[in-house]
Design goal:
Arc Repressor Mutant, subunit A, homodimer, 6 helices, 2 domains, alpha+beta, 43% helix, flat, DNA-binding, Dna Ligase, domain 1, three-stranded mixed beta sheet
Amino acid sequence: MERSLLKHFIKSRGLRQSSQRDRVVETFLSQKGHTSAEELLIQVRKKDKRVGLTTVYRTLKLLTESGLAVERKFNRQVSTFEPARIGQHHDHLICLGCGKIMEFENKNIETLQEEVARKHTFFITHHVLELYGTCLDCSKKGAKKPKKK
Amino acid sequence: MERSLLKHFIKSRGLRQSSQRDRVVETFLSQKGHTSAEELLIQVRKKDKRVGLTTVYRTLKLLTESGLAVERKFNRQVSTFEPARIGQHHDHLICLGCGKIMEFENKNIETLQEEVARKHTFFITHHVLELYGTCLDCSKKGAKKPKKK
DNA sequence: TTTAGTGCAAACTCTTTGCAGCTAA
DNA sequence: TTAGCTGCAAAGAGTTTGCACTAAA
């Protein structure tokens, strides 16, 4: 069903269909969690060796613009992308020990954000809320160096 | 007073003093708002032409490690740095129209964050909360393209 | 036949590193 | 005299762009 959204987006923009792009979209939408362009390329290439990194980047851009993907940076240089579930906004807990990412939703926080914005006569389009720290597993293992990349 | 913290940090690490670093630190601490390495270099060079970008980067790293600076990325590629005011954590409203950055503090939000963490048995070390949208001025001017960079 | 899509290599942006000379202690 | 500090140039990492070719419509 999400795919029809993209089809519509492609049509409305006068774009064409292509097997590489289809493959990237299909693979992306089947992913759980957060995927970087590089990681997605690896998955895509398992099915089709001919796809290049550039196409993955271009397709992710298209997906983001059409609202099917959400781009996130967390505390790193690389962008990661997550399939957008309509109407399901959420924020993240990021473990600096093992890199695990957990999701949460909290309406009360959102309400307070709106209140803050109102005080500043500011109109929120979107927000970023990321809680960094240590998950249960990592706190048990004791002090551990943050996972690189 | 903040400067004595850095002096202590430098001593404890067995580092040396240098006029370039002093100039960068001095300039940085006198800045309001958020400064990128490039912007800081421009300011520093007004007083001393001999300072290089590398030294600015290295000094900002030192300041961040010693707790005198806080690094922030917002929605851009570049890092910006802000002098850390001890015990004064705050979050940001970022206008996508003009790039203006406003600060706010909200204890209730922080309390709710701790509650979320507790539910997930997660231990927060720090968080990022950024509200993106349109400020009053920009909403008056009507639809305006987001300022690049 | 037209024009979007593709992969490759090159360019780009921001940041870090290697290095040889400089300088504080 | 011994390292840390410096600027420069080069290297890195992640992403975007230019280009000639391919292929959908």
